[in-house]
Amino acid sequence: MRQLFIRGKTSLNNERGTIIVIMVFVVMLLAILFAGMVQLGIFLLARDQVQTAADAAALAAAGSGTHRFVQINVVTDRGVEKVCTTDEDGNTTCECVECGEARIEGIVGNEADLLDKGGWRKFCVPRCGGCDSGDCWYELVRRDIMYDTHSMGWGTSAENIAKVEKNLTDATRTIVSYISYDYRNTISRMVEGMSLAKIDYMLNNKQDWMNRWLATKGYYGSCPHSYVDETIGAECRAWYATGEQQYRKISDKRDIARKMIDTIEEMRQYNSRKVPKIDAQYAGAAGRFFEANLPPNAEDAGIVKIKAYGYDERNSPYYPSIVVYATAKIKTLFPSLFPDDFMTTVCASGATSFRDAEDQKRGGNKFYDALTGGKWYRVPEDACWVDW
Amino acid sequence: MILKLRSEKGSIMVETVAACLILIIIMFGFFETYKLIDTKLKVQRIARDAAREAAINYNGKGLELAKDKAKDIAKQYIPHMNPSITVYLNKVNGEDANVVCSVTVDYRYMQYFKKSGIGGRSINATAIYPWQDQS
């Protein structure tokens, strides 16, 4: 049989020590594999820790300093005024007059102030009473989430307040004319076209009342001395006396216009208040929670990017959420082989939860208190890596 | 007396057995290291998921839910390890500020030989999540 030789004429038929050689190779190979496995383990562990830190940061960002922004309508059912008149025989007849409904739409603001603290009541208008004292409530239109208050509006438009003022002025004219049921057409002519301020002045100033009262019959000035014709003078004086009688009747209603004016004024002031400009706090919150969960197995771990899908992007499928991107260098066991540490980047998305307005309206859209019930609205899609 | 091993009969067998023993020890090392890393990863995930559960249910029974969640995941991930789970609220300036979930496992080496293992170490992970507030 032909023998095998390698250079140097060593016979390979002698297998002494071959197991040792093989073992050295196998053990070296296994050692490399083992080191690789440990390295992979460290990498996975560090990556998981960075993921935890990023996740906590994203949730903190999504939940810190958020502002609930609502739009509501405030409706006042002004009730039914009881108007009574007494005839010469002393019989009193009462009638109920509808005061109508005042509706202020499109009121916007921070839910904490507007609903939780009852700020919406400032948009209720005075009610009548007597037959039915009426009611005031608010309707929820929508709710949004803001991470800062820079886009937050407050109150309603000046036109809406003006519309309510006109509505209230018309209602006041009706009520004033019904103070005296028998002379309602006369008083109605007196207050026609008058503003609330003029009605208030008239109700609290007898001379003004009498002048307007006499003017409805074409008399001007003071009757007793201004008419030569005694018949006309007598008619005027009689009309004057009736006017005085009616003026006395309104004694308990003299503040009706003043109440309206004060309410409108208060509403205007509340409506014109400024929303404090509060900056977003998500970056600070994210940083603090990332630090709190800082991965021990990673070096130079930090947040590299934060993307907020806030109110300005409310039509985005990712609204309202905050995405945090973080990186970390992971220590290597083979610095000579991999002089640069391994780098890992993770992404975490935190959704901001708030109550679903549509769910809250399901049982009826008439509210008096803060809205704390209803389903949570938490539907944004996962925005990780979308804007990376 | 000098013992001369003139005959090499059986030496291959001895070497093979020795090599196999070394390989088996190394394989056990591999497996144990893998298990250790895997347990560390799982403990980390239990802490994270439990803290997250508390954070997203902040206004209800968040802490109880977090503990239940941690126990459930632990049953799936590390069924025989009976981890110690603590979930509590941290206060800052008198107000609830964050929820801390801490999971500790007493890891025993080589438990397939002996139930109490051959030595061991404690593996723990902590996750600190926010306790949300809204205005």
Notable characteristics:
heterodimer; A: 388 residues; alpha+beta; 2 domains; 3-stranded antiparallel beta sheet; 23% strand; disordered N terminus; B: 135 residues; Pantoate--beta-alanine Ligase, Chain: A,domain 2; 2 helices; rod-shaped
Secondary structure layout plus pairing:
The complex is a heterodimer of chains A (388) and B (135).
Chain A: E1 5-6, E2 10-11, H1 18-63, E3 67-77, E4 80-86, E5 92-98, E6 101-110, H2 111-116, E7 130-132, E8 135-146, H3 158-177, H4 184-191, H5 196-203, H6 206-215, H7 223-226, H8 230-249, H9 256-271, H10 282-292, E9 298-309, E10 321-330, E11 342-351, E12 354-355, H11 357-360, E13 376-377
Antiparallel strand pairs in A: 1-2, 3-6, 3-8, 4-5, 4-7, 9-10, 10-11, 12-13
Helix pairs in contact in A: 1-10, 3-4, 3-9, 5-9, 6-8
Chain B: H1 11-56, H2 62-77, E1 84-92, E2 95-108, E3 120-130
Antiparallel strand pairs in B: 1-2, 2-3
Q: Can you offer a commentary on this structure?
A:
- The complex is a heterodimer of chains A (388) and B (135).
- By secondary structure, chain A is of the alpha+beta class.
- Chain A has 2 domains: 44-65 and 282-377, no CATH class; 67-204 and 254-271, no CATH class.
- Chain A has 11 helices and 13 strands.
- Chain A has a 3-stranded antiparallel beta sheet with strand order 6-3-8.
- In chain A, a hairpin with a 3-residue loop joins strand 1 and strand 2.
- The two termini of chain A are 70 Å apart.
- The relative contact order of chain A is 0.16.
- Chain B is α+β, with helices and mostly antiparallel strands.
- Chain B has one domain (11-130): 2-Layer Sandwich (Pantoate--beta-alanine Ligase, Chain: A,domain 2), CATH 3.30.1300.
- Chain B has 2 helices and 3 strands.
- Chain B has a 3-stranded antiparallel beta sheet with strand order 1-2-3, covered by helices on one side.
- In chain B, a hairpin with a 2-residue loop joins strand 1 (84-92) and strand 2.
- Chain B is rod-shaped and about 85 Å long.
- Chain B starts with 10 loop residues before the first helix and ends in a 5-residue tail after the last strand.
- The chains are: A alpha+beta (388), B alpha+beta (135).
